[in-house]
Design goal:
The structure is a homodimer. By secondary structure, chain A is mainly α. Chain A is built from 7 helices and no strands. Chain A has a single domain, classed as Phosphate transport system protein phou homolog 2, domain 2 (Methane Monooxygenase Hydroxylase, Chain G, domain 1, Up-down Bundle). In chain A, helix 2 packs antiparallel against helix 3. The longest helix of chain A has about 35 residues. The N and C termini of chain A lie far apart (about 55 Å). In chain A, about 50% of the residues are buried. At the A-B interface, helix 2, helix 3, helix 5, helix 6 and helix 7 of A face helix 2, helix 3, helix 5, helix 6 and helix 7 of B.
Chain lengths: ~230, ~230
């Protein structure tokens, strides 16, 4: 009985990791679709989001089943609850990647915008891809230095969002109406992707250390949405 | 032992309901702050968000404790897991209300924008307040007709978001740069508030009926973010 349970917990961890790989791929390809105005890549991300949603459903079902049948305690309970939280976080990241892909697809064959805002958005796609891939490595290795790295690199996205406000509102860089709309949305999607990675990293850290304070900081927050 | 457990479950339900009242108040007052360009109301919402976050922390801690000590099964397990999901949903709603309040505060003493976009945003604040208050009644009564009503009324917010795209991109209504930026953000915040209410309603319905299909639709989704 216990052996089966341990196998189920291992399977749960594997599924979370597999889901994170799909999400990191979505973030990477969505970024490419945006930078390259590539409609095929955009479509690929949009179509693949169903698979990510299915992961969340099956992980939640697995967790409910484990809670009901095995009644885990202590570390095992933390693992099951963390898996539920992580799958919800990963699913939101997949959604955000899909929204980035929608933008790229809608403007095709044009780029979503031009000028310094496009450069900034391109940078943000690279930062987002980096932290999404870091999250997969963290889920694989449980190396908490990676968690620290994710929190640090998320600053790049927060700073880029602030820079976008300057470009939009202070410098009032020349942009057509739809470019302003796209920029506001895309900078937010990409910055939120970073926040979710931090949330996932904090949740994993809580799982490893048992420190509840980390889970308090799992909340997406801060002043990053102030306009 | 069982009596204590039943009391703990009842307390959990009470806390979720109390949290929902705080959230509905935040949504209502944030809407008023926006419509009336009222900085005091904006500040009130911003300050009160800490209390909402505290609710989420204490509810999560209570749920973990219940899972570990009481090892609930069947309906009781669904209640505990649903409480964790609902508190996360309510916390996000509180955040969105806070972001609406930030916008109102930043533009004070001016309104966030003018013209037909301001009228649209005002309508959206009313719709959002309505579904947030419906959610509290649903959590109080478990009357599933309210859940159906929330899903229906959420259409108002989805349609308003689509209308905002028309105003911005098609009709290209006259708006200053900061008004465009604010409008894009605020329409999204308010439409997301509706989505979270639907998510909460679906989760409550799953709790009452035990029907897992409803929980699949708990995901925020749809095409509402397409720009």
């Amino acid at each position: 009985m216990r052996k089966i349970f341990q196998q189920e917990l291992a399977d749960l961890g594997d599924d979370i990791y597999a889901m994170s790989l799909k999400v990191a791929e979505a973030v990477r390809v969505a970024g490419e679709a945006l930078r390259e105005a590539d409609i095929e890549k955009a479509e690929r991300v949009i179509d693949a989001d169903n698979r990510i949603d299915e992961y969340e459903d099956s992980i939640e079902a697995m967790c409910l089943s484990l809670l009901a049948r095995q009644q885990p305690v202590a570390t095992d309970l933390r693992l099951v609850v963390s898996a539920m939280r992580l799958s919800a976080t990963l699913e939101r990241m997949g959604d955000l990647a899909r929204h980035v892909a929608y933008s790229a697809r809608t403007r095709y064959p044009e780029h979503v915008c031009g000028g310094p805002m496009f450069e900034l958005l391109s940078d943000m796609t690279h930062y987002a891809t980096e932290v999404a891939e870091d999250l997969t490595r963290l889920l694989d290795t449980h190396d908490l230095e990676i968690a620290e790295g994710i929190r640090r690199k998320d600053d790049n996205l927060d700073n880029a969002l602030k820079r976008s406000f300057e470009l939009l509102n202070v410098e009032q860089v020349e942009l057509k109406r739809h470019e302003v709309v796209n920029s506001v949305l895309l900078t937010r999607f990409l910055e939120r992707l970073g926040d979710h990675c931090v949330s996932g990293a904090n949740r994993l850290e809580y799982l490893v250390t048992g420190d509840l304070d980390s889970s308090v900081t799992e909340r997406l927050g801060g002043e990053s949405f102030v306009d």
